[in-house]
Amino acid sequence: MLMGLGGFLITTALLALIYIPGAVKKTPLDTDTYTRLTGNASALPSGGGSPVKALSHTVADGQKSDGDVVVFDTFTCLIKDPNGDSPDCVDDTDPDRRLVTATTDRFATDRRTGLSVNDEKYIGDAQPHEGLVNKFPFDVEKKTYPFWDGILDRAVDATFEGEEKVDGWDTYKFVIDVNDEPAEISNGIQGTYSDLKTMFVDPRTGSILKQTEQQERVLENGTTVLDLDFGFTDETVKGNIDTAKDNDSRLGLIGRLPLIAGLLGLLSLAAGFFLWNGARRADGDGDYADPGRRGPDGDAHAADDTRNLDVFGDDEATPSRSDVRGR
């Protein structure tokens, strides 16, 4: 029984080492997240500056996704929030003219690497993307990654710039630095675009836990039309870190499972072998001790054990069998 248990545990360890990580380290198909940002902006369409807030709602399209690729739809809304009581978004008929920008985006990514997938069966006629879009890969490396920029319509470098704690949680810091790039800065209007984006990423899952951004859009004549400085709200950062801790615990258990199951399996196999070997040897000793059975040399023990056997009693004067035959 112990040897059977040991075999099961060894098999479990091998599965946990080879198969389970690949099956578990995938972007979920039920993703439905809200990311909120706050900050300040100036040179807005109405002129002047104002506190602003943004909402980004990302949801996975489970029907279009499969085991390898996940399809996302993202809605982003940036509005003025002068009194701190604006809703998440307003439309362009808002009487207070609080809407700055509102956009939608559809894209697909590899569930393991996070890299864009542009197959039409996933995104249809949506705009192709490059590089990473909304997260980093599982088991993030300390290197430069290509990251999608929707204003430039191409990937830009997200450079690793060290490790940093966010609310006590270890993260990798990545920075995107775009300077005065020619771009369509708003609905057919050309100009230059600058963006300094700092992302704090969970090393195990690749999720972006915190983000800050300073963005500037300038017309060709030098007029600034948007000067934006904003980042994730404290509530969003806290929620992201809580989720990262839960995911880290699950993935950490999976990472330790091969070692735990392997050690228990080896111990079970060893214990089972010693018990089996001990029982076998005990059976063997019993065979040799039985005078009615043959020993390892094939001779009957009875022939040796009865040569001087006194069959007539304990009296010393009683002759042995050989003496009786000799008389």
UniProtKB/TrEMBL annotation:
UniProt region (Disordered), positions on chain: 286-327
Organism lineage: Bacteria, Bacillati, Actinomycetota, Actinomycetes, Micrococcales
Protein name as annotated: DUF3068 domain-containing protein
Keywords: Membrane, Transmembrane, Transmembrane helix
Domain of life: Bacteria
Biased composition (Basic and acidic residues): 286-308
Species, as recorded: Knoellia aerolata DSM 18566
Bilayer-spanning residue ranges: 257-276
